[in-house]
Amino acid sequence: MRPINEPIPGDDPGPSGAKPVTPVFTTDILNQSTAVDLSSGEMQPHWDGLAKYLNSLGTEELSQRWKKARQIIQEHGSAYNVFNPKTATERPWALDPIPLPISSHTWQTLEHGIQQRTKLLALIFKDIYGRQDFIKKRLIPAELIFGNPGFLRQCRFGPDRVTPDHHLFSSDLIRLADGSWQVASHGTQVPAGTGYALENRVILTRILPRMFHSRKVQRLAPFFKYLNLSLMEISGQKQQEPRIVMLCEGPLGTHYFEQVFLARYLGYTLVETNDLTTRGDWVFLKTLGGLQRVDVILRRIPDYACDPLMGTSQAFPGIPGLIQAARAGNVAISNALGSGVLESPGLFALLPELCRDILGEPLMLENAGTFWLGKPETLLRVLEEIKSDVRPMTIYSAFSQAHTQVVHTRSLAGLEKQELIAAIQATPYAWAGRYSVAPSTVPVWSEQGVENRYAAVRMFSSSITENASTAPAKISDQVETAVMSGGLSRVADDPDALVLSGTRGKGQGAKDIWCLSELPTEFKSMLHRFTTPVEIHRGSDLPSRVADNMLWLGRYMERTEGMLRVIRSVLLRVHSETQLNKVSEMPFFLRAMANLKIISPDLGQPDASFSVRIIEKELYQSIYGVQIQRSILNCLNNAIQVADRVRDRLSDDSWQIFGRIEKGLGQINPKKQSAELLEMLSDILLNMSAFAGLALESMTRGMGWRFMDMGRRIERALHMTTIMTSLIQGHTVPDPNDLEAVLEVADSRITYHTRYRTTIYMEPLVDLLLLDEINPRSVGFQLAALHSHLENLPRSQPVPFRTKEEKIILDLTTRLRLADTQELMKLGKKHVLPNLDTLLEKLNNDLQSLADSITQHYLSRIETEKQLNGQFEGKGFPVAGTVDGAVNNEI
């Protein structure tokens, strides 16, 4: 064996006399893994270069690069919901920095074997939902199909079908100790992992760039280009670009990050079921400007969640009428509805025979010891083996790909074994199983160094099946296939966690797969040209759900920023050298925080007593309080959750800022000292300002930006009216210290003192913070911006009159522009400044009405002016103002 610490050509071993590096790999670790050829004892060539390179880096350097990779993972928000989507438990993506190389010879063998299986599965699907010749000839047992809940009779098409089927498959493979490869299972419904494979490659490219320069690692882009072109092909659009959407479960879905990442990479619109609707056997996307026809749906949700008219036992909203639209050929769906039947473990066990019968050739890649108990000879053999405990095996449902009812025979007692045998004998066709297999191990990086763990490989393939109504001369020529030259490797301490889907094991993680080539790899672009020139247009439209989330993203961010500024100002005074009872502006701050619902209302009363201890306790609760709706923690969490729902609309830079905010939230500790707490709040404010700056300078002025900015403007105007109301709620005219405090929380001190030097008066302050339309912190500025946004929002049809929200904003803008500061400063008897108080109350109430009207008109698709005035109230009809009839404003 050649020395494994020799640098690869082109690598920089470091300056002369540098400290020797500690090798990453040791001979013992490599000898126990797939890196060494068992027959010769020599390191396999495709591992040799990787081992040399990583050893030239050393453990310290690789550890530093891996820290950088984890930072990238956090900034990208790479995560998945672990095993139970209902709990929404996110776990960071556990990527291993050591890739899994596959030699060019092995890759060619795997590619041909996966292509064969892809072609076979595509033909089986076409027959099951078409002529069913394979069932009539008993090549496929009828009970294995018609008894399978995954077989959807509503999706069967007739002989006149003209739309081709497109499938995206996954194949889980394991490598045995002798070097042979076997296939453990297939994913045919919504195979997951393509986005994670792409993310893995992006991260490893950044931390191990020289390996891609010196090694001939095949790229992943050609597969995605083929996938993109395939979806365009099945759309039926030949001259212009079709509308392709990716249908996902939403942020609570297990693989939401992957779906967002993939949708952005492919350039597809990410939608949920409530974003789509059907009209006359056509599928449409609901947008602010109206309904837009959808040509192709790349679905990432299971069959049963697609259409509630399917009649399945599970209750999901879905898209009513989707099956009918697909049967009519008006929308192409990938993967085709009903493809979950192909995930049947019983059908998987029959693939070797089906390959010989259908394709006329043996299966290139063997199955991993699977069997179906519907065959009498197999049933007798397996029952005898269960009784005698000769061979450990796993028994599970022949219909469910998730392998429910998993039973490990090695753990059965006498009575349990008899019950299992009785259940199998009652319905043998409903059971399948697998003999225990031990995958080979691969080197995995850990904090303690390199370890060996079991590994499985998931590879992806795509196929297009031609028109089912034609009968080609050679059946195998009907399917065109492509295989991703890479994939996703999963590693775990428990081999069953790799072989059985849904089985949780220890030490789970993922690796990038490097399929090596004998020739240099070529760059492939994702760009595609159509015969018809693209029509130039500006502006954009977006789904109503996205607009709603963008609106609330702006509101939550601005609401949090306003509260942070007030809390920071109060903390500075609580921990200053001046005693709290000597701070004359403290009553104003208490009133403001009470009105903003930061502290309890009692502390905002004129006769309220307070102390440092009481205020500190209230402030800490306002920051960390989980039970307090408007705490900083809850508001930021709400902002992050809303941002997660529009993740595909936010830039990488924007998401990195949210990653930093989320990291700051993780460092929140109620035991922090005041200096640390102030520093933390300042950091969060800076990150929020950075996000606002990105939105101002980088986001195109489309509908997404408009709704997010409207949310910011509404919330900032409400915040400023609350601050000004708190200022004049005292029994006397505010003193200069109160006015200075208002300028501080409004971030307008420099502007005021630049204009008026050192003298602080109430009248110019009111002008600056209420009426001045060139001050970005004033209410007038917010109203002018809202007026501009409302004039540019889309309308489904032209109307001769202004909408309700336009009337509200026009009335408010006019009132402010006609306001006279001298009239506002007139003193009263009951109130200190009654005219100003009346104006502020009007602004606050109408701004709330404006927010509700925008939501009802543009986001809930409810025209509130046409409600039937409650005449159906109490008769089962939704009434305006209720959750069903209007809108739920809080996320």
UniProtKB/TrEMBL annotation:
Domain DUF403 residue range list: 542-859
UniProt-listed InterPro entries: ATP-dep_Glu-Cys_Ligase-2, CP_ATPgrasp_2, DUF403
Domain Circularly permuted ATP-grasp type, residue spans: 99-492
Region (Disordered), start-end ranges: 1-22
Stated name of the protein: Uncharacterized protein
Native source organism of the sequence: Desulfobacter hydrogenophilus
